[in-house]
Specification:
Blueprint: H1 49-71, H2 77-92, H3 98-151, H4 159-187, H5 193-214, H6 226-231, H7 234-243, H8 251-257, H9 261-272, H10 278-290, H11 299-304, H12 309-324, H13 327-340, H14 348-373, H15 375-399, H16 406-423, H17 428-435, H18 442-471, H19 475-493, H20 502-516, H21 520-526, H22 536-540
Helix pairs in contact: 1-4, 1-5, 1-7, 2-3, 3-4, 3-7, 3-18, 4-5, 4-17, 4-18, 5-14, 8-9, 8-10, 12-17, 12-18, 12-19, 13-14, 13-16, 14-15, 14-16, 15-16, 15-19
């Protein structure tokens, strides 16, 4: 940004010094006598207080609730089943058999994923009508409604209220899991997009950790507290609802979709802490001009658009791979592995809290290294570590009867799998979904990635018990294969997006399509960068966009 202007700080620029864009001059025409900034080279920024504040707020009020709701039903499972059984007995004069009781509890757990699928399908409509900030604010009302259902369910003797509340929290998580990275990806300078984009994944881990800690017997793990335990989510959601309106809408949304130049300028000044935002607006204007004849595409149009088929395929692979990596199966199987390692049953909840700590630490490592290492290394290394550790879990389960010390290898491999997941695959796919597409395709891409994510999540939760019964310890080799194949795909196909504008990334994929159309003997001379598909000249040299 320009060095001659004083930073505006967290507020709007002071009216006393002449701003770059006066109210009457919210025009995007280049200033006479000055060189127009070249997109992709000088458009960087520093971490301002408004940027950091809104990132922490939406991560705390939205992303953390996803992690919390994933883990919150584990520790009170016995109490919830007892409530279901008691209520059924009061209504019909007899208790539930073990089979129907398990089915009812499984519905309580899995309806969260079904709600998430519904929420992910609503993303496109919500962000187009209300904007990114507006969609997040309105989705907070769903959490307040869900908290009321779950919090008063025991008082009203209604298991249905617990199930409905879980479904509504799933809808909220389905919306926020896509809208939060979309919002942060659009407000962040390109040199901070990776860092800010991974902050929500840290809060997802913190949500899981919070549920594990609050579920301990000394806190909310007792029978009388489980409705409160489920409805604690209203606190972060209320805070977000109260404070999010203090922050501007996404400048990219305001300019490209609403053509609000003055609103864009004010939002950029607020987020970037400087009135000199000409270069950023020029980059956005270039994208707007490239999309002037293109309306917001639907999911169906995205899937059939050959100009973005590599981007779409990449979103499908990394989002499906994130769930099919077996991380949910690991969380499901952790208690059994700890028990076989000799940890007393009464101490297993505390050991599980230890794995939550590993999640948070690994997420922090990924967040603070992504701008130095890049997206690709974190994804490739994360999936490879997971694949190796999943193979190690299989070996430990097969040999622990003959080699007792192998049970400790299993514990190490469980921790390694969780750490590998949280360092990269847990958050980078959501960030890359924003980076691989321009404004017209981005909402549809999040619908595809989000719905696929939730579908795979539900599929793994449904089939894993049957896979475990039929394949035994070898079931983890299936997930091992998925992890290694996704790592190979990322190595061969997906370019590095660090410090690149959205138009530069789009240009890389467009160049790739032209490479794929030339003869093989010519292609080999050019494709010497990322794996077998990327030109190093695009990564190592600056270039002008048309």
């Amino acid at each position: 940004m320009g060095d001659s202007s004083e930073p505006a700080g967290p507020g709007l620029p002071s009216p006393s010094p002449p701003p770059t864009f006066p109210c009457s001059g919210c025009s995007l025409a280049p200033m006479v006598g000055k060189e127009t900034p070249r997109p992709g080279r000088d458009i960087t920024g520093h971490l301002t207080f408004p940027l950091l504040s809104v990132t922490l707020l939406v991560s705390f009020g939205s992303s953390m609730l996803y992690g919390y709701n994933l883990a919150v039903v584990n520790s009170p499972a016995v109490h919830i089943k007892a409530f279901y059984n008691t209520t059924w007995s009061q209504r019909y004069g007899h208790g539930l058999a073990p089979g129907p009781l398990t089915l009812l509890y499984s519905l309580t757990v899995s309806t969260f994923s079904l709600g998430g699928l519904v929420g992910s399908l609503l993303v496109g409509v919500l962000v187009e009508r209300y904007g990114r900030n507006g969609a997040l604010s309105r989705s907070s009302l769903l959490v307040l409604l869900a908290g009321g259902f779950m919090g008063f369910s025991r008082e009203l003797g209604s298991p249905e209220m617990v199930i409905i509340g879980r479904c509504i929290t799933g809808i909220h998580s389905g919306i926020c899991l896509s809208v939060v990275p979309l919002y942060l990806g659009e407000i962040a300078p390109k040199n901070l997009r990776g860092f800010l984009g991974l902050v929500p994944s840290i809060f997802i881990c913190l949500g899981v950790f919070s549920a594990q800690v609050l579920g301990l017997p000394e806190l909310l793990g007792e029978d009388r507290f489980w409705p409160l335990f489920l409805s604690v989510v209203v606190i972060p959601a209320s805070l977000q609802l109260l404070l999010l309106h203090c922050f501007p809408e996404s400048p990219r949304y305001l300019l490209i979709e609403r053509d609000d130049v003055c609103g864009t300028t004010r939002a950029l000044c607020r987020f970037l802490g400087t009135p000199d935002v000409q270069g950023v607006i020029e980059e956005m204007k270039e994208e707007q001009q490239s999309l002037s004849s293109v309306e917001m595409v639907s999911v169906w149009q995205l899937l059939w658009d050959r100009s973005v088929h590599w981007q779409t395929l990449s979103v499908v692979v990394v989002n499906a791979g994130m769930q099919l990596s077996g991380i949910d199966a690991i969380w499901f199987y952790t208690n059994t592995i700890f028990e076989k390692a000799g940890i007393p049953i009464s101490q297993i909840p505390y050991a599980t809290v230890g794995t939550g700590t590993v999640e948070v630490v690994a997420g922090l490592i990924g967040c603070f290294t992504i701008e130095k290492l890049g997206r690709r290394p974190l994804l490739i290394a994360g999936f490879c570590v997971m694949g190796i550790c999943l193979a190690g879990i299989t070996v430990s389960l097969l040999l622990q009867t003959t080699l007792p010390w192998m049970c400790y290898v299993g514990v190490v491999c469980v921790i390694g799998t969780i750490a590998g997941f949280c360092m990269g695959p847990a958050g980078v796919p959501f960030l890359m979904t924003a980076e691989l597409f321009t404004q017209s395709h981005r909402p549809a891409a999040y619908i595809v990635g989000g719905s696929l994510n939730w579908l795979c999540n539900f599929t793994i939760g449904f089939i894993f018990p049957f896979l475990q019964m039929s394949a035994g310890a070898f079931c983890f080799l299936v997930f091992c294969g998925v992890c290694l194949l996704v790592a190979l795909y990322v190595y061969l196909v997906i370019p590095e997006t660090k410090n690149k504008t959205f138009m530069e990334i789009s240009h890389i994929f467009a160049t790739r399509r032209s490479f794929l159309s030339v003869p093989a003997h010519l292609r080999m001379k050019k494709l010497d960068g990322y794996g077998a598909l990327e030109s190093s000249s695009l990564e190592d040299k600056d270039f002008n966009l048309p």
